[in-house]
Design goal:
By secondary structure, the chain is α/β, with parallel strands linked by helices. Helices cover 31% and strands 19% of the residues. The protein is built from eight helices and 13 strands.
Length: 275
């Protein structure tokens, strides 16, 4: 019996038509395949509501990890930040008849997915270099629990670039913010886990010691393949142990999928993004 196909897809950002075209191209079968989305389902593209409806409608045939734009939608729906810039695409979701149900479903998505048997993991942005696979999952679950049981307080503390790194013993909501920034916003860090969330906007001189997060991965990830999105400037990353799938669909690039057939067999499919 052949292994289930896992179809990993990069940042969709509300691009409903490219997503549907990609699913048609790979002949996605929800009874046999599993669609794996690296986060940022919403925002910037033309139809975030349609994307949420499509993915939610797949039920257990789809797996989503939350990205920073997904969290921004949820925070907006909870009245955060306190003086938000109006987001018409978010308002359409919130005001839709099925909006509350879709938002509840989204709020219950994880921040990391792992399959130890295939040694595959999926996260939106990156992993703290000090975290082993099991530690990364534990940190992600801390945020998931807050989202499910204390969302109002979580979103009221979510925004901000400080603390610059996660540490044990930090005040609860600062620790959750640090974890959130790692998993959903990080691109650059140093070997001690300090984040440079403005890495693209500062000079190389000021970035001494900071590198792309995956260059500092903990050694226990060596046998795993980590799939991520969030970094369209990198383009497609195809390595044995690292797959970057944000190929700029919403910026006129492509929407890209990696199909994992099991036993190390993979193929790559792309469709055009927005014009």
């Amino acid at each position: 019996m052949s292994a289930q196909r896992l179809i990993f897809v990069g940042d969709v950002h509300g691009c409903d038509q490219p997503l549907q075209q990609l699913l048609d191209t790979v002949r996605f079968d929800p009874s046999a395949d599993r669609l794996m989305l690296v986060g940022d389902l919403v925002n910037r593209g033309p139809d975030s509501l349609a994307v949420l409806r499509l993915v939610h409608g797949l039920g257990e045939a789809a797996e989503v990890v939350l990205g920073n734009h997904d969290l921004h939608l949820l925070a907006y729906a909870h009245g955060q930040p306190k003086r938000p810039r109006r987001q018409p695409d978010f308002d359409r979701i919130i005001e839709a008849e099925d909006g509350p149900m879709l938002l509840t479903w989204l709020r219950h998505r994880p921040l990391i997915w792992q399959d130890p048997a295939r040694q595959l993991a999926m996260v939106h942005a990156g992993i703290d270099p000090r975290w082993r696979p099991e530690q990364a999952m534990l940190r992600a679950v801390e945020v998931t629990e807050a989202l499910r049981h204390d969302a109002e307080a979580y979103f009221s503390h979510m925004y901000g670039n400080r603390p610059r790194r996660w540490r044990p013993g930090q005040p609860h909501f600062k620790q959750l913010r640090a974890i959130t920034n790692v998993l959903t916003r990080m691109r650059w860090c140093d070997g001690k886990g300090r984040l440079d969330l403005d890495g693209e906007r500062v000079s190389k001189k000021k970035r001494v010691g900071f590198r792309p997060w995956f260059e500092y991965r903990h050694a226990d990830w060596k046998a795993w393949t980590l799939v991520f999105g969030h970094w369209s400037m990198l383009g497609l990353v195809q390595r044995r142990s690292l797959v970057g799938l944000d190929t700029g669909c919403v910026w006129g690039g492509e929407l890209t999928a990696m199909i994992d057939h099991g036993e190390g067999e993979r193929e790559w499919i792309s469709v055009p993004g927005l014009d």
